[in-house]
Request: fold
Amino acid sequence: MIGGISIWQLLIILAIIILIFGTKKLRNIGGDLGGAIKSFKKAVNEDDNNAAEKKQEEPPRSLPGAEENAQQKDADFDANTNKDKSSGA
Reply:
């Protein structure tokens, strides 16, 4: 294979790493890395759950002045409706 790494080359690299660091140190590094990944996943899941709970608890927000505009539109509609009824009758 040109430009690729064969299984034999990977095994030689692994053997050199084991000789340099030792199996005990590699086991500790692996355990630490696994614990870090587990903590990260737990934190991400908690954030997702908190966001979902917060979204359910919060009432929908309206734009500032939107309620006043809606009340004004209702009043205008009622006024126009009353004009139509009085002029049509």
About this structure: The chain is about 80% helix and 0% strand. The chain has a mean pLDDT of 77. The longest helix spans residues 23-57.
